[in-house]
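Cytochrome c oxidase subunit 1 structure dump, as promised
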Amino acid sequence: MGTCFSVLIRMELARPGDQILGGNHQLYNVLITAHAFLMIFFMVMPAMIGGFGNWFVPILIGAPDMAFPRLNNISFWLLPPSLLLLLSSALVEVGSGTGWTVYPPLSGITSHSGGAVDLAIFSSINFITTIFNMRGPGMTMHRLPLFVWSVLVTAFLLLLSLPVLAGAITMLLTDRNFNTTFFDPAGGGTPSYTSISFEVYILILPGFGIISHIVSTFSGKPVFGYLGMVYAMISIGVLGFLVWAHHMFTVGLDVDTRAYFTAATMIIAVPTGINLRFYYWVGKITGRTYPETLGKIHFWITFFGVNLTFFPMHFLGLSGMPRRIPDYPDAYAGWNALSSFGSYISVVGICCFFVVVTITLSSGNQNKCAQSWLLNRIQPHWNGWYKVLQLFILLGNFQLSRRRKA
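structure tokens r here:
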């Protein structure tokens, strides 16, 4: 659904003038809002944290299950009603066209109705408790796989930043319904309060951990600079709280403040630089191998499609094309047409992905996965640690048996 919305946006922007939306600028903004909310809060976050996190964190740390399975269940079942609220907001009056940031005054009472946002605080508490208290014997913090570290840092980010988001949403609701003026300059408020956002680091950190596993596995070598990678991810989490004003350069900040946030934003690139997942773990999840040739075809189609879609947008932004407006001068037509063509290629890549998934799940016993994937074993960042872990377990059992005999 989110992909369909993005393709509709690109079809509208493929040529200058009014296209498939018939000049309805509000509907264009509603599509942008729905696309962003669906992809961020109902695809990336549930897949990274709820999907891969809940499945693999217990396996990778040697725990039998998450610490609070029922809490996990609650956080999952909050998704369907919140998704229903988001989709239904598009049907109320003219729809919610605030953009995913929901910044005032566009989201204020004078503009239009608001949407729904899913919170992941329950899952964060669950991950933190599981990782700190349910590690296997010998699995110290400095032996945790990098994916587990990335989930841990992300859980702290969610736990500390989402209450800020919830508070801002609550203030926005009271502005709209109870005549408060938190974000209304007429009553002493300011729209800048809602510009504090840490979402990008919440989305990218689990990806860093997964990529580290993939590179280590397929290169056949341990991750170089394991501790450096760990503290790099922690640094990204800490610095993520100190760069929020880079969203606010146009609101009249003084020169010193702009200089600090510019420097802090560049500094966060340092730990980021120190730092495909479905194909990597599909064997572990399903017990079957995917058709490798089709997987490569899907990769290259998606690679060219995504880059052809988003690279022209950089040049359009540098040229001064206005955002959130479905019409534009003829001078921007070339790059927009190229970007729209790239989105069509990406849709072909998505269809190819679904073909790969269908073949993988329906192949029966013909392409049974290798036994190494079927073992419910711990996979630390370096396979040598697995042997060390086994030795610790054996020594512990031996000492326990000696004490019982004594």
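Residues 25-61 form the longest helix (37 residues).
lmk if u need the other ones
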